[in-house]
Amino acid sequence: MTNLNAVDPAAVAQDAHLESADVVIGKSTIIFRRFLRNKTAVAGLAIFLVLTLFSFIGGFFTPWDKETIDPFNIGMPPSAEHFLGTSQAGIDLYAMTVEGTRISILIGLVVGLVSVLIAAVYGCTMAYFGGNVDKVMLFVLEALIMMPALLVVAVATSGGGAGLKRDLPSWLLLIIVLLVFSWMGTARLIRSMSMSLMQRDFVKAAQYMGVPPRRIVWRHLVPNIGSLLILDITRGVTAAILAEVAFSFIGIGIKVPDVSLGVLIGGATSQVQTFPWMFWVPLTVMFLLTGSLAMMNDGLRDAFDPSSSSTGEARQAKIRKTRAEKKTA
Amino acid sequence: MSSETTTGATGPARPEVERLHVAGLHAPADAVLSVRDLNVRFNSENGVVHAVRGVDLDLMPGKTLGIVGESGSGKSVTSLAIMGLLPSTAEVSGSVRLKGRELLGLSDKAMCEYRGNELAMVFQDPLSSLTPVFTVGTQIIEALTIHHPAMSRKAKEARAVELLAMVGIPSPKDRLRAFPHEFSGGMRQRVMIAIAIANNPRVLIADEPTTALDVTIQAQVLEVLHTAQEETGAAVVMITHDLGVVAGMADDIMVMYAGKPVETGAVDDIYYDPRMPYTMGLLGAVPRVDVAEKSSLVPIEGMPPNLLNTPTGCSFAPRCPLASDACLDGEPALASVDGQGLHSAACIKSDALGGDVDVHDVFAAPPVPVSRFDAVPRAERTTVLQLKDVKKHFPLTRGALIKRRIGTVKAVDGVSFDIREGECFSIVGESGSGKTTTLLEIMEFHQDQDGEVVIGGLSNKQAADAKTKARMRRELQMVFQDPTGALDPRFTVYEVLAEPLQNAGMDRAAIRKRIMELMKLVGLQPDHVNRFPNQFSGGQRQRIGIARALAVNPKLVVLDEPVSALDVSVQAGVINLLDHLRAELGLSYLLVAHDLSVVRHISNRVAVMYLGKIVEIGEVDRVFDNPRHPYTRALLSAIPVPDPRLERTRERIILQGDLPSPLQAPKGCNFATRCPVFAALPPAKQEKCLSLEPPLESVRPSAAAQALQNAPVHPYDQRFACFFPDGALDEDMLVVHEPAENHAP
Amino acid sequence: MLKYLAKRGITYLVMIFLTTSAGYFLAVSSLKPALLEQERIPRPTPEQVANSMRLKGLDPDLSPWERYVDWLTGIVTRWDWGRSPNGAYINAEFGDRVWISTRLFLASIILTLVIGVALGVYSAARQYKFQDRAITSYSYLAYIVPAPIAYFLVQLGAININETVGSRIFFVTGISTPGISPGWPQFVDLLAHYVVPTLAITLVGWGAYQIAQRQYLLDNVNADFVRTARAKGLSRNQAIARHALRVSFIPVAQSIAFTIPAIFAGGFFAEKIFAWPGVGSWSIDAISLQDVNAATATLAYGSVIFAIGAILADFATTLVDPRVRVQ
Lengths: 329, 745, 327
Hints:
The complex is a heterotrimer of chains A (about 325), B (about 750) and C (about 325).
Chain A: H1 9-21, H2 27-37, H3 39-57, H4 93-129, H5 131-146, H6 149-158, H7 163-167, H8 170-180, H9 184-198, H10 201-209, H11 213-249, H12 261-268, H13 276-304, H14 308-328
Helix pairs in contact in A: 2-13, 3-4, 3-13, 4-5, 4-8, 4-9, 4-11, 4-12, 4-13, 6-8, 9-11, 10-11, 11-12, 11-13, 12-13
Chain B: H1 14-23, E1 33-44, E2 47-59, E3 64-68, H2 75-83, E4 91-98, E5 101-102, H3 108-111, E6 119-122, H4 136-147, H5 153-166, H6 172-175, H7 185-196, E7 203-207, H8 215-232, E8 235-240, H9 243-247, E9 252-257, E10 260-266, H10 267-272, H11 277-285, E11 335-336, E12 344-345, H12 359-362, E13 383-398, E14 404-420, E15 424-428, H13 435-443, E16 450-455, E17 458-459, H14 466-475, E18 476-479, H15 493-503, H16 508-521, H17 538-550, E19 556-560, H18 568-585, E20 588-592, H19 596-602, E21 605-610, E22 613-619, H20 620-625, H21 630-638, H22 644-649, E23 652-653, H23 676-680, H24 683-691, E24 697-698, H25 703-709, E25 718-720, E26 734-735
Parallel strand pairs in B: 3-8, 3-9, 6-7, 7-8, 15-20, 15-21, 18-19, 19-20
Antiparallel strand pairs in B: 1-2, 1-4, 4-5, 9-10, 10-12, 11-12, 13-14, 13-16, 16-17, 21-22, 22-25, 23-26, 24-25
Chain C: H1 2-30, H2 33-37, H3 46-55, H4 64-78, H5 90-125, H6 130-143, H7 147-165, H8 184-221, H9 224-232, H10 236-273, H11 279-288, H12 292-320
Helix pairs in contact in C: 1-4, 1-12, 5-6, 5-8, 5-10, 6-8, 7-8, 7-10, 8-10, 9-10, 10-11, 10-12, 11-12
C-alpha cells in the first residue's frame, strides 16, 4: 500500500494501522512461494541457470576455442588437455559444447520470448476488434499453421542467392524462421482467453464505469492472462531448442561453421560407435536443458493453478494413507 | 397432517433410546428407510471436515420429507451417503436401513442392486446430469436394462415411452431418439425424473431439483414429481434451500445446520411454531410474494462454522441473537418440544420460543427505512431514466456456406418505461423474456440504438462525444448477479473501489476518504480494504459490488439479480442494505430478478416481460394483488409460498411447455401458445388473439367505484396487454392438490 | 453435413493455394539452382547454364512473377508441377515416392492414436499407481527429445539387437531388399523394413495422446452424468467405462487435426534417418540441390495433408459428439 502514501498524517496513520491489522500477501508472492516449495521446479531452475552460466563463462577454463585445430589430438577421447576430447577435425569438443550450448539457449530464449510477445499482440488484437478483423487474422494464422515449417526452414537455410541471407549468420536466420512459425498456437489460445475475459463481469463493470479500453486491457486483461504468458514462454523456449536440434540434426538448421547442440549431435551420429563421447556429451547437455525447462514449466503450472496445490497435497495424503494401509495389511 | 416420521430421540431415558437407535431397533416397523446416527467425515487440506454429524430419520412409504438448510449444512452429503455415492475418501458411519436391510458398508457392486431400483435420485443440475453423447432413450433404457436384464428390447422401449409420457414430454416416441442438448433445462429434469422412477423406486431423493430452473418450469417439475410419487407410491426426500418449495409438498421437515438436524417435525409445526432461532430466522429471512405489508427481512449475521473443529457449544450460537453463556456449554441435543410430540428442536431455549414470539424482535430486524421521496407524489419527482420504444432484434440465420436469414429474434421489442427519483422499478419474466437484454441496452447505450434511452435528462441520441457519455455513465451504475465474477480476482478491495473514483479524476486523498466512507456505508469493516475478494464470503462480496456501484454517487443503480447467488440468510441482509441505501441516499433502482418475492418486497413498480414485450406494468401491489394478464397470473401462481396451509389449497396455473422459440411466436399475442385463457376461448375469440397484437391498456376503477367517487377518476397505475383478461382459465392447466372440499373452485 | 464439408473443403483449397503460392515465391527467391550448376566440372559458361535452365522451365532471367505464372499455368492446364534442375519431372518423382510415405504415415498415425488413447485410459484408471507414473513419465520424457534424435536412438537400439543376436532381425535402413523373390518373402521383407521406422514414429508420437487422454478422462470421472449413471445402478467402473470414456474422446478427436501434420513432419525426419526413398527425404535432398519445383510440390503436399487432417478431425468429432451433428 505504499503507493497510497499521502501527505495527510491521518491517512499515514491509517496506513500503518492497515498494514499491522491484516497481513495480506500479494498474489505474486504466493505464486513465488509455491514455486519455491516445488523441489523439482527449483532444481530445474538451478540446472538451467548453471547451464546458462556455463555457456557464458565455460570458455575461460580452456585455452582452446571452437575454431583452432589441434593437429596432435584428432578424434581423441577426453583427456586433461581436452576435457571432452576432440572431434575428428581435431577441434576441442569442450569449447564447441560451450559455444553450442550458448547458441541453443540464445535461440530458445529469443524465440520463446519474442514469439509469445507476437502471440500476445496478435491474439489480443483479434479478441479486441473481433468481427472481420478477427476473421482475416484467423485466416492468416491458420494458413501459417498449414505451412510445413520444416520445408520452409529447409528452403530458407539452404538458399544460396540473396545477399541478405549470406550476411546473416545461420543461427539468426533460423531464429527468424522459427519465430515466423512458432507463435500461432499461443496466439489462438490468447485470443480465446481474452475473448472469454471480455465477457467476464468485472471487465463489463469497468466498461460500464467508463474506464477507457486501453486501461481495461492493461489493468484487467493482461494480468489475468499473465500466468498463461509465462507458461508459454517456458514452453516456447523448450520447443525452440528442440526444433533447433531437430533441424540441425538432419542438416537443415544451423550450418557449419556455426555450432549448436544440434550440429554437434548430428555431426557425431556417424561415429557413435567409434567415438561415443562426441554424441553423448552434447546429447546430455541438451537433455539437461530441455529437461530443466520442462521441470520449471511443471512447477510454474502448479504454482499458477489455484486448485493444484490442494490436489497436490491430497495426492500426497492419499499416498501416505495407502502406504499406511499396506503396512497394516 | 399427522406425522408418521419420527426424527431424533424422545423421552427422558436418552442413552438407552440412543443405543436402540444405533442398533436400528427403535425404528418404526413400517419405515421404508431408516437412518441412524449418520456421520460423514472428509479429509481436506486443513484437516478433517465433519460434514454430517448424527442424522436420524425415518421415511414412511408415500410420504415426503423435506430437508432444508443453507449451502454447506450437510443436506446433500446426507443424501449422497444414503445413496452410497460419496467418494471413497469419505468416512461414513452409522446405519442406513432400506426395508430392514443395512446399506452402509456394502461394496459399490452390492449397492448397485439397490441404486436405481429401490433407491433413486434426481440431481440439481439437469444440464450436466445427462450424458451428452447418448440419446435420452438409451439413457432411460439403460436404467431398465441394469435391473431387468431379461426384459425384451421392445418392452423396454415401450416402458421408456410410457415414462416420458408420464413426466409430460410431448410426442415421447420421437423424443426417445433425441439427445440431451436438444432439450431445455426443464425437459432434461423431466428426463432425470423419468430415469429415477423407471424401476418404481421405494425411495426417491430429489436434491434441489428445481433450483436451476425458472419459476414456471419449477412449478411444472414439482408437479411432475408429485405425479411420480403418486404413480410409484415412493417415499420422497426433498432437499432444498427454498422454504417455499417444500411447504406445499412435504409432510415432515428436517432443518439442518452445520451438519446436524437442528429442528424436525411435521410441516405445520415447523412453519407455524418454530422453536429453534435458526429456523425462525430462515422463515423471517424469506420475503413473501403474497403479502403487501412492508416489514424488514430478518438477517442472520455471520457465517456458518467450518466444521473442522467439533463445536463445544451450540453451533448456531455465534449467529444467534438469543445466545447466552449456557448455549456455549455443550451442544444441545434434539429434544421434543412439548415433551411428547414428534416436534423436536436442538435449542435449550426452545420452550421459551413457542407461542407469539415475533421473529423480528428476536433478530432485531431493522426498522423499515423511509425515503424522503416517499411522501412526494410520483408525478412530481424527476425522471432519472426513460426508455422510449427500445428495440433489440437479432437476425437468426441458418446455412453453412451462405447464411440465410430465417427469422428475427426480437429480444427486446418496443419497450418503454420510466423510473422516477427514489423508486425501485423491477422487470420480471422467465429467462429468455428479454429482461437482461433490456438492461444491457440501457448500460450499453449508444447513438445508433433503435429507440431512445434518456439517462438523467440526457438522451442517447445526444451522446456523441465522450464527455456527454461520461456524464450519463456517472448517473447510472450496475451491480452484477455473480459477486465473484464481478470482482477482478487480482484486485484488492481498495483497488476495486478506487477504479471508478480514479476514473472520475479524484485525487488520492479524496479517494481514500471516499473508500472508507463506502466500506462503512455497506457494512464492511474499513480495515479490510487490502484484502482480496476471495477472502470474503458471497454476501460480503456483493456488498463490495454495491459499494463500487455507489462510489461515484449515481442517481440510478441497475441491479441484475443481485441476490440470486446468495444463501437465504445472507440474501436478507443484502436486501435490507439495498432498502436502506435507497432511503438514505435517495437512490433509484432498476432491478431485474426472477424471484418475484424479492421483487415484491423491494420494488415500488414492476414490469412483466414476455418474449421481448412488456405484458403488464404498474404499481407493485396492484399488479401482484390484482394481476390482469394471464401470464402475470401464471407467474404469480407458480411462486411457492412458505405457508403450508395456503400452499396446499392454492390453485395453481401450470403453463404448458417452455418459452416458444422466436420462430414459433404467433403474429398476434406472443403468449397465445401457452395462454390458459386462450386455450379456453371459443375459436372466434382465439382468432383475435392470433391476428391482433393487444396494446397496453390502463386498468380503470370499476363503475361502482367511479360512482362512489362521484367525480372523474384517474385510471390506476396498472396497464396490461390482453384482450380477454376476464376469460375463464383452461381446466387442464389448473392444479390443486388437496381434496376439493378445502376450497371453492 | 455434406454442405458443411464442402464449405470446409473450399476454404482449405483456398488456403492450400495461398500457402503453396507463398512457398513458391519463397523458394524462387532463395533457391538459385544456376549457382550450383556453375560449380560443375568442367565449369559451364553462364550462357550454357541459362540455356539448360530455360529448357527445364527454370529460366533464372525471368522475374519471379513470370515464373510463377508459367508454373501455375503448367499445373492448371496440364497438371505439370515442373522439372528439377537435373531434368527429372516432378510428377514422376513425386508419384514414385508418395505411396511409400503415405503407407508409413498411415500405419504410424493409426498406431499412435490407438496406443496413445489406450495407454491414456489405462493410466487414468490406475491414477497415481506405479503403472500410471511409469507411463506418464515416459510420455513427458518423449516430449523433451527431438523427434529425429529419438528415431536415431531407436535405430541404434535395433542395430544393437541385431548385433547381440548375431543375425539381421530388423532392417534399419531402406524399404526393401533388392532382388527378393515376389510373393510371401517379399511381404515378410517389407514388414521387416517397416517395423523399425513405424515403431520409432509411434514411440515418440503416443506420449502426447496418452497425457491428453488421461487428463480428459480424469476430468470426466467425477462429472455429474457419471454420478447419474451410478445412481441408476452402474458400478463406478461401469459408469466410467460406459459414460465418461465416450465423452473424453471428444477433445481427442478434435486434436487429430494437429497430429496428422505432426506425424507428417516426423515422417520427414524418419525417412531421412532410415534412408527411406519417400517424399520427405527426397524433398530435403532436392532443396539442398536448390530445386524450386520439388520444394513447392512437397509444400503443397504438406498443406493437403494438413487439410485432410482437419477434415478427418471434423469427421471424428461428429462421430463421437452428437452436439455438433445438428447444423
